[in-house]
Known about the structure:
By secondary structure, the chain is an alpha/beta fold. It has 3 domains: 3-49, Transferase, Pyrimidine Nucleoside Phosphorylase, Chain A, domain 3 (Up-down Bundle); 79-156 and 169-324 and 427-433, Nucleoside phosphorylase/phosphoribosyltransferase catalytic domain (Pyrimidine Nucleoside Phosphorylase, Chain A, domain 2), CATH 3.40.1030; 330-418, Pyrimidine nucleoside phosphorylase-like, C-terminal domain (Aldehyde Oxidoreductase, domain 3, Alpha-Beta Complex). Helices cover 45% and strands 15% of the residues. It contains 17 helices and 13 strands. The protein has helices at 3-11, 18-29, 35-48, 52-63, 92-101, 120-125, 136-146, 159-170, 177-191, 211-227, 249-260, 266-282, 288-300, 303-314, 320-323, 350-362, 404-414; strands at 79-83, 106-109, 148-151, 195-202, 231-238, 246-247, 333-338, 343-348, 376-379, 386-387, 392-398, 415-418, 428-433. The strands form 4 sheets. Strands 1-4-5-13 form a 4-stranded mixed sheet, with helices on both faces. Strands 6-9-11-7 form a 4-stranded antiparallel sheet, sandwiched between helices. A 3-stranded antiparallel sheet has the order 10-8-12. Strand 4, helix 10 (211-227) and strand 5 form a beta-alpha-beta unit. The longest helix is centred in the middle third of the chain and has 17 residues, at 211-227. The mean pLDDT is 94. Bound molecules: uracil. Uracil is lined by residues 84-85, 111, 114, 179-180, 183-184.
Amino acid sequence: xxxxxxxxxxxxxxxxxxxxxxxxxxxxxxxxxxxxxxxxxxxxxxxxxxxxxxxxxxxxxxxxxxxxxxxxxxxxxxxxxxxxxxxxxxxxxxxxxxxxxxxxxxxxxxxxxxxxxxxxxxxxxxxxxxxxxxxxxxxxxxxxxxxxxxxxxxxxxxxxxxxxxxxxxxxxxxxxxxxxxxxxxxxxxxxxxxxxxxxxxxxxxxxxxxxxxxxxxxxxxxxxxxxxxxxxxxxxxxxxxxxxxxxxxxxxxxxxxxxxxxxxxxxxxxxxxxxxxxxxxxxxxxxxxxxxxxxxxxxxxxxxxxxxxxxxxxxxxxxxxxxxxxxxxxxxxxxxxxxxxxxxxxxxxxxxxxxxxxxxxxxxxxxxxxxxxxxxxxxxxxxxxxxxxxxxxxxxxxxxxxxxxxxxxxxxxxxxxxxxxxxxxxxxxxxxxxxxxxxxx
Length: 441
Ligand code: URA
């Protein structure tokens, strides 16, 4: 079998066999297929697509590309969550400790920033000393002891996704439905939790911009999960405006900590609680109403915040900054962006806000770029807010003065300010699940 022929076949819009997909995934993971050929195939897939069978074969190949976590040493049902990616999306850092504080075991493998979106692993690495790569045995020991653990795609779990993810990030092949399904579900199947909650983002800051695309992605992932015998729910949530007010790694950890201390923004708190409640519900921790109340109590009592602190300590991270978030390293420069006119924020192109943050140093433009954890954006006005000319829209944080002008241009290009307020958008649009909510009524 030759990689050249596989690329040609997909370029011509033909269906790939499971053997051809397996050949590509194995060869690329083992370093036999070079980046340039893998990039060409990814682009052909992004343009020509993949059908259900090809998507399933790619998912299985990714899941089987390394070891599988042996979760049998963790008692009871295990739950996991994953977001399809957004701007300012720090829900993992909140929902996972909430669920663990309610007695659920949550072994979670997260990703790095992808395209214009942030990644949980980069956020965790903003915490001094946090080890996002640990051996499977240690990971399991921590989950057993603390209740939760969040790591990156460490060496041997779904290594194919680790490599493909980094390549997609820099080859404009992120917003491709079959590649997203295989990436997310490949990791989920390699980790092997019983209950999975997917936060499928929709809107200008997500990879899926329209309702139709988002519903297709949600259904495709729930179907793969169902076939693999998982309890799985996809929540379709809004990403037309950033979640919360912080974009960028340390800034987002600080906002997550504030939220766990009961002082978080309303949208972020609500989505995080909903994800945690859904994880509890899938794991039979009560009817939906009881699960929602348990999640709220774990948050308001501070138990979820303590759970985050324990988890960070278990992975070697410094907890000092979690007790006093002013101790997080600050960016050398902060720059105020003012509103050019009076009116209402009618819309933000949230992908551009993610790009603005990336330009400030919070993400990668090239595969090996080093992240500036203190870089990012603090928003002061979001969609629907009234604003006066000259009023503060945001603060840009970065460590090199030359980054400010391009980031400011990108940022301002994202804001539409009109005379009339925009119609209100929902925060949660839909729920696609293998477990119905009928017992609530
Ligand atoms: N998150 C992932 O893990 N993979 C994707 O492709 C998109 C979001």
